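Re: [ENG-882] Designed sequences occasionally contain unexpected residues at chain ends

Forwarding the minimal case from QA. C-alpha cells:
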C-alpha cells in the first residue's frame, strides 16, 4: 500500500474531504473513482493550473489556497495534510478557525512536535500507521478532536499503530539511525531516544 492508498483507506464515503497540498490530486482522483466529491487545494497556482489541465472531473474542486485560507466553513470535515513538514502543518492549523472531525497527516519530520502541538489545539491521536514506499518509511497519523496526556514513549514513537510488524521494522531502522548518531555525539537526548526505542521494542515482542 502506498501513501495515498493508505490515506484513502481512512476516508469514509460520507466524509467531506479537503486535501491541502494536493499536488497532482491523486487522492481526489481515487475518491472520484468511487463517486466521492472532494476539494483538492494547493498553494501553487502552477500546480493547480496543471492539475486543471490534466483532470476534468466535476467531482474534484481544484483550488489555489494557502493552507485553509480559501476553504469555507461547512465545506469540509476531513482534512488531509500529506507530504509537508510538521511545522507547515501546524502553521496551517494555527491560521484557521475551521475545525475538523478527522485530520490525516503524513509529515516527513518532527512527529513528536506534531503530536504535542496538535494536542494543544485540541486534536489527539486516534491511530497511526507506518507506510513503506520506495524503501522510505512514512508515518500516517489520524487525529480526532480531543485532548489527551501522552507518555514520553507515545510522544516520541507514536501510539495505536495499525501495522505492528511494519512498526517494529521502523523502530529497528530508527534504533540503527540513532545508535549511529550516538557514536558521534554525547547529546543525552540521543541516548534517551535509543533507550525509549529499545523499551518499546521489548514491549512489542
Ligand atoms: C510534496 S507535495 C505532496 C503532494 C501530496 N499531498 C502527497 O502527499 O504526495 C507538497 C505540496 O504541498 C504544497 N504546499 C506547501 N505548502 C503549502 C501550503 N501552505 N498550503 C497549501 N499547499 C502547500 C506544495 O505546493 C506541494 O504541491
Amino acid at each position: 500500500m502506498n501513501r495515498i492508498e493508505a490515506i484513502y483507506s481512512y476516508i469514509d464515503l460520507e466524509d467531506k474531504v479537503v486535501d491541502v497540498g494536493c499536488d497532482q490530486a491523486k487522492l481526489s482522483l481515487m475518491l472520484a473513482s468511487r463517486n466521492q466529491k472532494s476539494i483538492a487545494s494547493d498553494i501553487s497556482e502552477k500546480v493547480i493550473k496543471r492539475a486543471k489541465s490534466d483532470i476534468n472531473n466535476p467531482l474534484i474542486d481544484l483550488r489555489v489556497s494557502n493552507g485553509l485560507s480559501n476553504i469555507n466553513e461547512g465545506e469540509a470535515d476531513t482534512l488531509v495534510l500529506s507530504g509537508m513538514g510538521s511545522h507547515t502543518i501546524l502553521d496551517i492549523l494555527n491560521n484557521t478557525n475551521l475545525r475538523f472531525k478527522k485530520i490525516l497527516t503524513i509529515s516527513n519530520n518532527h512527529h513528536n512536535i506534531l503530536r504535542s502541538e496538535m494536542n494543544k489545539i485540541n486534536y489527539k491521536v486516534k491511530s497511526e500507521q507506518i507506510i513503506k514506499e520506495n524503501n522510505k518509511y512514512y508515518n500516517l497519523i489520524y487525529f480526532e478532536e480531543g485532548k489527551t496526556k501522552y507518555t514520553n514513549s507515545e510522544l516520541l514513537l507514536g501510539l495505536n499503530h495499525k501495522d505492528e510488524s511494519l512498526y517494529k521494522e521502523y523502530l529497528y531502522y530508527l534504533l540503527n539511525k540513532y545508535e549511529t548518531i550516538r557514536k558521534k555525539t554525547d547529546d543525552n537526548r540521543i541516548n534517551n531516544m535509543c533507550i525509549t526505542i529499545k523499551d518499546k521494542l521489548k514491549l512489542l515482542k
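QA comment: On inspection the terminal residues look reasonable. The chain has a mean pLDDT of 97. Proposing we downgrade this to a documentation issue.
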